Every structure is written in C-alpha cells, then in structure tokens.
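agent> step 3/5: call structure_predict on target 'GP-PDE domain-containing protein' (Peromyscus maniculatus bairdii).
agent> reason: downstream docking stage needs a structural representation; sequence fetched in step 2, passing through unchanged.
tool.input:
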Amino acid sequence: MSSTAAFCLLSTLGGYLVTSFLLLKYPTLLHQKKKQRFLSRHISHRGGERGPQNPMAEIGVTIGTDMLELDCHITKDEQVVVSHDANLKRSTGINVNVSDLKYCELPPYLCKLDVPFQRGNISFFMV
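tool.output (status=ok):
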C-alpha cells in the first residue's frame, strides 16, 4: 500500500472517529433537543403490573402512572376493541382473530381469565 493511500485511509478513519465521538458526547450540535409536552416517569403496560389485566386501568392509576399502554385491534366492521391479544382463544376460548369478526359477533370473555405476569412467574386470574 502506498503512503498516500495509507494517509487517506487513516485520515478518513480518524475523521470518522472524532466526528462520532463529538456527536455522541454532544448530540445537540446538529439538532436542538425536542421539547416534551410532558415528562413521563412511569408507563403501565396492561394497566399496571401489580394485579390482573384491568381494562379500566385502575391499578395503573392507583400506583401513580403517567401513561397507560393499551393494545387495540380493529374488527371487520372497523370498530376499535381494547384487547391484549389479536386472537381471542386465551380470553374467550374461541380460536378467532378480532379482525375476522364484526363488533356484534365478538364472543364474551371467559369467567376466569388467566393473565400471567413475568415478575416472579405468578399467574393471576380475573374473576
């Protein structure tokens, strides 16, 4: 390799490393920091993790969550349904997707709904 090619390669690599370091250390050099409308410190999945899945998200509210995460699916007639699973087998016992049914055809939930949580491998039941 000629000395000119080695110089070009090393200067390019050095410039890349210096630029990467500067942008990593000072990310606002190119872009201003985005102003948040509100600061969220706690987000609850399925309404909170201290109890069974709760469609009203009461648990998340009582533990002081700032934002609730819900899973929504659209029925065949374009109605929005709040359901963790796209398939209703676990919650209703019927192996069908929400998107394959009209809203009026949705089956009722089971009397006891197994809702497993990963922390401590404990299963809760919604009665």
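agent> step 4/5: record observation. Helices lie at 3-25, 58-62, 89-92.
agent> proceeding.
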